[in-house]
Amino acid sequence: MEKKVLCIGDSLCLPGHLNKYEDTWFFKLKKEFPDFDFISFFKRQLTTEILVTMGGGKKGVDGWPKGADCLEAYLPHTIILQLGIVDCAPRLLYEFERKLVSRVPNLIKTNYLSLIKVLRKRNLGNTLVSFDKFKININNYIERAYNIGVSKIIIIGIAYPDEKMVDKNPQILQNVDKYNDFYKKISSENKMVEIILPLDAKKYDYRIYEDGYHPNKAGHELVKNRLAELLCHS
Length: 234
Description:
alpha/beta, Rossmann fold, 2 domains, 5 strands
């Protein structure tokens, strides 16, 4: 019987930013492990909220908890998660402002954003998913995975950007460290969970990102190689 590998992630898993689908770690992994059943749940701007909200939660319908589309619906043997940067990146606009500017004409939106960029810096605490909620989401997901007999959860740690992204968002490294430290804590406490951190621009003397954050072909190869090492022993 094929081992089901459920892969959930944001835009870092997807083609684009000069990458073809064939350049992605997901495609490369499927080619290297043809006897595994790889299932993808990828979407741009995805956060860990998806793990506890998408699908399930309706009484009398399968009896699945909220978030079942990311877990219980598939009953995977192994899970690969690449989530967190959208959760933790410091934002310029607060939630009420994001809702407001989404409803106004583009000219007003552009002028407002230009003004805010002059008047305000990004706030470490202003994130799409707070650190406390991030921890709740991950703990909930891991507990559910354990309860259905998942063998392994591999977390691709939040990537460390290069100077292009840091220049635009100077405090981002602090939040990447903070959220990654929680991933590391979870991994140290649970044999089912393993974190890998292949994407860190400081580690390499060649480019691994196209735009400061999204991995290029070399970056995807780094991720694929680490995942392949772990899948070989799964």
